[in-house]
Design brief:
single chain; 436 residues; alpha/beta; seven-stranded mixed beta sheet; five-stranded parallel beta sheet; 23% strand
Length: 436
């Protein structure tokens, strides 16, 4: 291969593809429209404090084997801190720790689950029955998960306090909108299959640092040529094959192999309309829906909790992440309903809830950030619209968590897609296996 492989997009999918290709001796040119890597897993500099602030806190889990491999390979794995106990808090301020013990999976979490104060004994029995049934599900298509829950004797309260609580954070979607396939994956891979699957890994530094200079230095050492502030206008085609990309400034980059690692809605702007209409692989992307996520950033006059995180039950947000000093972030997944409220009312409600949990505190600064197209929505049957890695155009590979990865929209899915795109180029397996 005389020309370098061009990777468009320096989010996790593009970074993973570039890393894998370079390790196997290929020349790689990585092109990013923005001035920094990371994509949606990124940070911005707060103008008043000068702090790096994550647009939205991202976490990994022990079941995310490819993300872990990618970070270790880049030398940044040590910046992910495992948190083997989760802290669930109800509006009355009571906390139930949730952690594993030495029992084998799937029983390693049973003791913590039995002690959860926010569920009655009957509710726990219902949930245990549902989990047992879910574990036994084989390929049954992808029906609405909410219907499956009702058929398996789950109540509105078990859905609110368990099933929906877990899924809205893991899938960034309301339980009423998700399909069985990825709901099952969350519970089986994350909680039932392996003792380490549920371990949450939280970056100890802002995402802009985690996926920043050290990672870029590792890619540069591998020989990857990286170019920022270089938006691709068109993927250039000739007779159904890729021959390069055209940048927004009119510059041309010749290439016979291109990996597009941009969001699905961005890919549609880089291809001719007639090509999109001619190939279901591209035309079907119009069916993918986006789900938003909102983060409420607060600088308070005191630290609210010594806990490393809090899973919030019955609140606007689902997670509270205290960071350095008195700065914290509350994450609201699938935040469609907040659009009508506006940022000011959203902040007011979050502050009121935190006051009820932790007592009065002063807010010195605040900021509300919403990513309107944070993830694709894992509605029932969504895999019908997700394309394979190999596109119908010769030389064009697709990467992104929205491609056919077998995973929902996660950092793990993004890295898997990058590895799969690199596999398609070099012809050897690269995706790491699941936890055994």
């Amino acid at each position: 291969m005389s020309q370098p492989v061009v990777v468009v997009g320096a989010g996790l999918a593009g970074l993973a593809a570039a890393q894998a290709l370079a390790i196997h001796g290929l020349r790689v040119r990585l092109i990013e429209a923005r001035d920094r890597p990371g994509g949606r897993a990124g940070s911005f500099v707060d103008r008043e404090t000068g702090q790096w602030i994550d647009a939205c806190q991202h976490v990994s889990m022990g079941c995310c084997t490819n993300l872990a491999h990618f970070c270790r390979t880049a030398g940044v794995g040590k910046l992910l801190a495992p948190q083997r106990t989760l802290y669930f808090m109800t509006p009355d301020g009571r906390v139930s720790p949730f952690g594993g013990d030495r029992l084998p999976a799937p029983f390693h979490l049973a003791r913590s689950f039995a002690k959860a104060h926010y569920l009655t004994l009957m509710e726990k029995a219902r949930i245990a029955y549902g989990l047992a049934c879910l574990r036994l599900v084989r390929d049954s298509g992808d029906p609405p998960f909410a219907q499956w829950l009702r058929r398996h004797h789950q109540t509105p309260r078990t859905v609110e306090r368990f099933w929906g609580l877990v899924l809205v954070s893991a899938l960034n979607e309301d339980v009423e909108r998700v399909g069985l396939r990825y709901a099952r994956k969350v519970f089986v891979d994350g909680f039932l299959k392996h003792r380490d699957g549920f371990t949450v890994e939280v970056p100890t530094v802002p995402l802009g640092e985690l996926y920043g200079e050290a990672l870029l230095a590792s890619l540069t050492q591998l020989g990857v040529e990286i170019r920022f502030n270089a938006a691709v206008r068109h993927i250039v085609l000739r007779d159904g094959a890729v021959c390069g990309v055209e940048l927004r400034d009119g510059a041309m980059i010749d290439a016979t192999t291109v990996i597009s690692a941009v969001p699905w809605h961005r890919l549609g702007t880089m291809l001719p309309v007639e090509v999109i209409n001619a190939h279901p692989c591209f035309a079907n992307l119009r069916h993918l829906e986006a789900s938003p996520i909102t983060s409420v950033h607060l600088w308070t006059d005191r630290r609210l909790t010594p806990l490393p995180h809090v899973v919030l039950i019955g609140c606007v947000g689902q997670w509270l992440f205290p960071r350095e000093g008195n700065y914290l972030q509350v994450v609201v997944s699938a935040s469609r309903e907040l659009r009508a409220l506006g940022h000011e009312e959203t902040q007011r409600r979050v502050v009121a809830e935190l006051t009820g949990l932790f007592g009065p505190f002063g807010v010195e600064r605040s900021r509300v950030v919403t990513e309107t197209k944070a993830t694709f929505s894992v509605v029932p049957g969504v895999d019908a619209w997700r394309p394979d890695t190999r596109s119908p155009l010769t030389g064009l590979m697709l990467a992104g968590d929205w491609t056919q990865t077998g995973w929902p929209a996660t950092m793990e899915g993004a890295v898997r897609s990058g590895y799969r795109a690199a596999e398609a180029v070099i012809g050897r397996p690269l995706v790491r296996p699941d936890l055994a």
